[in-house]
Amino acid sequence: MKKRILLVFMISMFIMSFFSKAFALNVEEIKALPTLLQMKDLIQDINQMPTFKYGSINLTSDPSEKSEIDWIVLDKNEATATLVSKKVLDKSEYSDQNQELLMGEIIGKWLKDFKTKAFDVVELKLITDCTLLTKSDIDKYFTQADGNKKLAVAENARSEGQNLDYWLANEEKARSGMYFSIYGNYFTGHYGEKFGVRPVLKINISTNQ
């Protein structure tokens, strides 16, 4: 009899615990829902190539001081918006491994850390990818009819008025990364060199979820 009572008690406690956690999760989801929908509606209403503030980053020696990040909307459809930071946010090496890669592990770690630190829980919920521009992106979105790529040149967020070379993501596996120079040309970076990081975000703006 005692064993049966104990078993019933344990089962009851398990059920209560399960539904308590489920309810708490639903409450958090419900709290976040209006904000998510507002952000999605806002992104969908923006015209092509505006400046859009999203997330924040520390650009000074004071870790408590953060600046909002300005993004350019490169492309969008009903489901996804592609953003690129208006300025170069930092400098990093690309890779320290002598092997063919699409994305160097050093800059890959930078992007992963950036994603977790620059955005709050709601902002992070909308991000589906955090990467870099490719050569094809610059050719598609920034190149003028005469071939000039000066629109892709970006200012250093940590040094006002100064432009900075920045890394691009490889479109095919390679032992080194390509970077875009302040003069509007493509070059190959070498081991140990540091160039700028200009992140690209893919954001879910679908209202069907």
SSE order: HEEEEHHEHEEEEE
Molecular shape: globular
Helix content: 25-40%
Largest sheet: 5 strands, antiparallel
Strand order of the largest sheet: 1-2-3-10-5
Work out the count of structural domains: 1
The unreliable regions are 2-25
What proportion strand? 15-25%
Question: What's the helix and strand layout?
Answer:
Elements: H1 2-45, E1 51-57, E2 67-76, E3 80-85, E4 90-93, H2 105-118, H3 121-126, E5 127-132, H4 135-141, E6 166-168, E7 178-180, E8 186-188, E9 194-197, E10 199-204
Antiparallel strand pairs: 1-2, 2-3, 3-10, 4-9, 5-10, 6-7, 7-8
Can you walk through the features of this model?
The chain is an alpha+beta fold and 209 residues long. The chain has one domain (46-204). Helix content is 34%, strand content 25%. The chain is built from four helices and ten strands; from the N terminus they run αββββααβαβββββ. It has helices spanning 2-45, 105-118, 121-126, 135-141; strands at residues 51-57, 67-76, 80-85, 90-93, 127-132, 166-168, 178-180, 186-188, 194-197, 199-204. A five-stranded antiparallel sheet has the order 1-2-3-10-5. A hairpin with a 5-residue loop joins strand 7 and strand 8. The longest helix has 44 residues, at 2-45. The protein is globular. It starts with a helix and ends in a 5-residue tail after the last strand. The model is unreliable at 2-25 (pLDDT under 50).
